[in-house]
Structure formats: C-alpha cells, structure tokens
Write a structure and sequence with these properties.
This protein is an alpha+beta fold and 624 residues long. The protein folds into five domains: 13-133, Potassium Channel Kv1.1, Chain A (2-Layer Sandwich); 149-252, Potassium Channel Kv1.1, Chain A (2-Layer Sandwich); 261-357, GTP cyclohydrolase I feedback regulatory protein GFRP (Gtp Cyclohydrolase I Feedback Regulatory Protein, Chain: K, 2-Layer Sandwich), CATH 3.30.1410.10; 396-498, Potassium Channel Kv1.1, Chain A, CATH 3.30.710.10; 500-623, no CATH class. Helix content is 36%, strand content 19%. It has 24 helices and 19 strands. The strands form five sheets. The chain has a five-stranded antiparallel beta sheet with strand order 9-8-7-11-10. A five-stranded antiparallel beta sheet has the order 17-16-15-19-18. A three-stranded mixed beta sheet has the order 2-1-3. Helix 3 (70-82) packs across helix 4 and helix 19 (465-474) runs antiparallel to helix 20. 31% of the residues are buried.
C-alpha cells in the first residue's frame, strides 16, 4: 500500500536536546514543535511515544504520524506549549477536545477542559453537560501494539486529505470502509497514492473521528445532521447511523421538537404473493414495486386508489417474484433502512420492515437516481457498483477543488454536467489537470453532494437559497431546484412555529350552593392578568386571602406563579363570594380586544358546593 513508513527507534532521554524540532502528522494536518513541548507531561501518551515507550511511525517525509483529529490537535498542542487552555469565545467542540485529551492521557488538560467549560456555562453560554453530547464514550487507551508498516493510509475524500490507519478504517468490518480496506471491495488511488473516496470532505472528519474513538463527538452548534446521516448511511456504519439519530433526537428534545418516522412493510409469501403496506406516495417512488403491482395486482384493482384508501396492496398468487435486490436498492436511495426481518414459518411468510426519518422525505426532498452507488443497510445484502480508475477526476469550481467520479456527474442525463462530461464536449483543464468550471465554489459542495446521494442535505443555518437555485438552474438540475423549494418552505414553516407561542387563559364562573353568591375564577399567568385591565381591576377589588400578610397584588402573583406549568384545570385564583360576577358575553368581548380568541366553552355538572359552573378557554398566538 505505497511506500512503507519507517519505524522510529527509541530515543535516549539523556542525549536528546529539548530544542530539537519535530513535525507531527495528525490526521493529515502538520504541526512543528519541540521535544520539550511534547514531553512536558511525563505521564502523557506523547511523552511515552517520543521516548520509545510506545512504538511510533513516521510518514515518507519523516513526520511522526498520530491518528487523531487534525484541527482539534491545535488546542492540545497550544496547551502543551503554554500550560494554559486558551479557546475561542465561540468554541463548541468540547466533547471532541475532551475525547482527544483522554486519548493522549494529559490529565492536566482534561481537568482544564472541564473547568473552562463549567466557567463558560456559569457565564451564561449554554453548553450541554459532558454526558449529554457524547455517545457512550469510553476513553480509548493508547495502543501498545506495533502497527504494521502498511497500516498507515491517506484518504482523498472529495478533495480533502486525511491520514489514518487501516485498523481504524476496519474497526467495523461490516461497513463499506471495512470491506474496502479488508480487500472485499476494489479501491483506487490518485497520482499521489492516496485512496480515493467520493464523499463530502469536511463531513468525513466526523465519520473518521467516530471510527477512531468509537464515540460521536460533535460541536454544540452542529447543524449538518442530514448530511452526516447520509454519509454514515453511504459508508454503512450502523453504529454511527444509530449514534447520529440518537444524538440528534437528544438535542432536538432540548429544543422541544420530535423526529417522526415513516414505516413501510413488505411481506413475501412462498406462493409468489407479495403484500405492500405503506403510503401510496412512497409506493410511487419505488419504480420496481410500482411496476410489479401494475402487472400483478388482483383484477379490477386500482393500485393508487387501493393504497391510498387502505394502506395495503397485494399481488396475485403464483406470479414471478419481484427483483428484491432492485427494490432494496431503490428504497435505500429514498432514505429507508431495514429495521427488522422476521419469518412466519407456519405460514411461509417473510416480513421486512423498513423505516426512514419522515422529515425531509415525506415532502419529497430525497430523489432516487438510476445510476448512483448505494449500499443496503442490511448486513446480509451489500449492493456494490465499482467505478473504473479512469472514472475519477478533479474539478476546480471557482477556485475550490472537488474530487468525484464520472458516474456521479452523469447520473442525471439531462443535466448540463452530464452533457459536459460526455465525450462530445472538450473541457478546459488547468496546468495540474483539474477540470475548470466557472461557478460558485462553496455552493458547488451542496450540488455535488446532491448528485452523490440523491438527497438535499443542508446545514440548519443555510441561507443562500437563491444562490443554490441559481447554480442548480445553471447546471440544469431541476430535481435539485424542486428539492430546494420544498426544503426552504419546510424550514420557513419551522422557523415560524419556533418564533411564535400560544398563550392561554381560562375564566371560571360558578354559583355557591349555600347562598347563591357568584364566584369568578382566573387561571393563567400573572403578567397576562395585569395586561387585561378590566380583569385585573376586578380581582384587585374582589380577591382576598385571609391566610397571608401580603398585599393583594403580591398574593395574586405568588399563587399564579406557583400554578404555572400545571394543567388549566388546576391552580388559579377565585374572587370572594359576591353578587357581582363578570358577565360572560361582556368578558369575552373584553378579552378578545387583547388579541385572544374564545376556543372552548364548557358547562360542568353541579357539585355539592357549586352549580351553574361555566368555563371559558381563551388563546392567542404571539411572537416570542
């Protein structure tokens, strides 16, 4: 696998000058420092590595190789240099820094990370606690096993370079990377000997960190969930897929939202019968299934009407079975994954249950492509389409470099990219052999990812919708334009919901059985009561609590604030018994002048103490 790195012999501490300079290759990022800096903490892994207590490796340029996160190592090294942890004010990658500090066994740094994180939390910067964002993290001890010379590899992922080890890439043998570097799937290299992977370069950093530490550590403000999920799905790392979903749900729960799922079930019977359970919209997007039922559904059955009405469609018995491989491939392209497989032996029925996140799919944001490479999540079925070596190429778009394949660029034949990279066009190249495209470099990342995965995955903070659609229009990718429109509308609706809140109040009118006196009650917040002047004036006049020495206003505020968060049937305040109850019609009219609408009126059955019990529920929507 390329030139063999040389093993570094153990150095004698007594003969090593502290001013000796060393260069480290950390996950593809180069750092130059001194021996004194690296060996500042004798109990650390770096000290043991340098002085031969742990075997080390060098690359072809003599740089010491460390399989870690390149960008985050900057903060580790700065701590070693200054014995002080200095992080940007908007630093978000606390969990990853903690994981790397644990990996390098620098106890002082571990303590400093915890302390600084706690200080910033106290200062009002809202970060999650350590255990909230790490997925079942167990510190990984430094390996004392000697790496094989061929264990070190450099990956070229969409133009981004990463240095790691084969043992890291094969940590999960059933994954696509495990198969690639285990010899089960062909691999290809660029002219520099780097292994080529057609994927999103920046997002692969998180995939690789998960492989290194078996822990999902993402920045607190991470927004590219859909893209990370799509890449984890592409690489078939089930543990990472589950980790992404779990962590996303945890963080979404903190924001008051919940992820919905869509399920589809296929039942295969020995007699040739096939039953589909799911939505008609989804069935129409699985061409092989749709065509099968068109040809083999029971007589006089309108497929669309049947599925839309009952959620189920059954084929005739004894017909030739559907091409399962093709069905699984098409469903995987739509974001489905196999959740469960079971067999009813007495009925000779095999049942496959599939699921996908409903958000982004039920609105048609994922689009199937006829020629894309996808991998079935089931450990039993792996669908592989191997590109040829000459299929790989590098694009230079507005100064930004991207590595991809001809298959990706041609998988939508009607687009301008497919026509440009056909044999009919002569394309310009720069002096380094990169194909030149005149377009917006950063935006092309999203276009290329759409072509790779047939799914539009954008950061939650994405705002350049017009630019994306303009570039998509330039390249004649209509599916991408449609997906952008749908996703934009969905996110705008979500923003609108987040920017609004509904406020409720309830008025209760009842008459005492003992003497017929009227009692008026109020349930809601203290601030809303004060905002509605007539109500506030009424309760100031007719509210009294003989068990408190507080003023009327203080007493009302204390009771209402204590009732907040309870159901509207609990808590609240009531007036003293009197003959001046609020007139319901006049009250409704008064409250609606403050933007409230009458939602519900309820008449309750008499009790031993009260009768004529009426409840009036009001609500209004306001901007937060």
């Amino acid at each position: 696998m390329g030139k063999q790195p040389t093993k570094t012999p153990a150095r004698e501490p007594a003969t090593t000058a502290d001013t000796d300079l060393v260069t480290l290759n950390v996950g593809g990022s180069l750092y130059t420092t001194t021996v004194a800096t690296l060996t500042r903490y004798p109990d650390s892994m770096l000290f043991s590595m340098y002085f031969g207590l742990i075997p080390t490796q060098r690359d072809n340029n003599g740089h010491y190789i460390i399989d870690g996160d390149g960008p985050i190592f900057r903060h580790v090294l700065n701590f070693l240099r200054r014995s002080s942890l200095c992080l940007p004010n908007d630093f978000k990658e606390w969990d990853l820094l903690s994981a790397e500090a644990e990996f390098f066994k620098i106890k002082e740094l571990i303590d400093e990370v915890k302390l600084l994180r706690k200080e910033r939390l106290v200062e009002g910067i809202r970060f999650r606690q350590d255990t909230d964002t790490a997925m079942d993290y167990t510190p990984q001890p430094a390996s004392t096993d000697d790496h094989k010379p061929s264990d070190l590899v450099t990956l070229n992922v969409g133009g981004s370079l990463y240095t790691t080890t084969v043992s890291t890439l094969t940590r999960y043998p059933d994954s696509m990377l495990g198969s690639m570097f285990g010899g089960n799937i062909p691999t290809y290299r660029d002219n520099n000997g780097h292994y080529i992977i057609d994927g999103d370069g920046p997002i692969f950093r998180h995939v690789l960190n998960f492989l290194r530490r078996s822990s999902l550590c993402l920045p607190n403000d991470f927004k590219e969930w859909d893209l990370l999920s799509a890449e984890a799905d592409f690489f078939q790392i089930k543990e990472l897929i589950d980790g992404v979903e779990s962590l996303k749900d945890e963080r979404s729960a903190g924001e008051g939202s919940r992820q919905e799922m869509e399920f589809t079930e296929l039942s295969f019977v020995d007699n040739g019968e096939l039953m589909y359970r799911g939505t008609g919209v989804t069935l129409r997007t699985i061409p092989t299934l749709w065509q099968f039922f068109e040809a083999h559904a029971n007589k006089n059955t309108n497929i669309a009407d049947r599925v839309d009405a009952t959620g189920t469609i059954v084929s005739k018995q004894g017909v030739r079975g559907v091409d399962r491989m093709k069905v699984y491939q098409e469903m995987t392209r739509l974001g489905f994954r196999l959740l469960d497989s079971s067999v009813w032996e007495n009925k000779h029925v095999e049942i496959k249950l599939f699921g996908r996140n409903a958000i982004g799919n039920k609105y048609g944001v994922c689009f199937a492509s006829q020629n894309s490479c996808f991998f079935q999540l089931s450990p039993v079925i792996i669908i592989v389409v191997s590109p040829l070596m000459e299929d790989f190429l590098t694009l230079k778009v507005g100064g930004c470099l991207y590595q991809t394949t001809l298959t990706t660029l041609r998988n939508r034949p009607d687009t301008m990219l497919a026509k440009m990279f056909s044999s009919r066009f002569l394309l310009k190249k720069d002096d380094e052999g990169n194909f030149l495209l005149d377009g917006d470099g950063p935006t092309f990342r999203h276009i290329l990812n759409f072509l790779r995965r047939s799914c539009l995955c954008l950061p939650e903070t994405f705002e350049e919708w017009d630019l994306l659609k303009t570039e998509a229009d330039f390249f004649h990718i209509q599916d991408l334009i449609d997906a952008a429109d749908i996703l934009f509308e969905e996110r705008e609706e979500r923003k609108k919901r987040k920017a609004e809140e509904t406020q409720f109040i309830q008025i209760v009118s009842k008459r005492a059985t003992s003497d017929g006196h009227l009692i008026t009650g109020y349930i809601g917040s203290f601030n809303l009561l004060k905002e509605i002047d007539p109500l506030w004036e009424y309760f100031q006049q007719f509210y009294y609590d003989e068990y408190t020495h507080l003023s009327v206003e203080e007493s009302i505020e204390e009771i209402l604030e204590h009732s907040q968060g309870k159901e509207l049937t609990d808590g609240g305040i009531s007036s003293v018994e009197n003959f001046k109850s609020l007139d319901p019609l006049a009250t409704c009219q008064t409250i609606t002048q403050y933007g409230f609408a009458l939602i519900n009126t309820t008449t309750l059955a008499p009790t031993k103490t009260h009768y004529d019990i009426q409840k009036y529920l009001f609500g209004r929507t306001v901007k937060k």
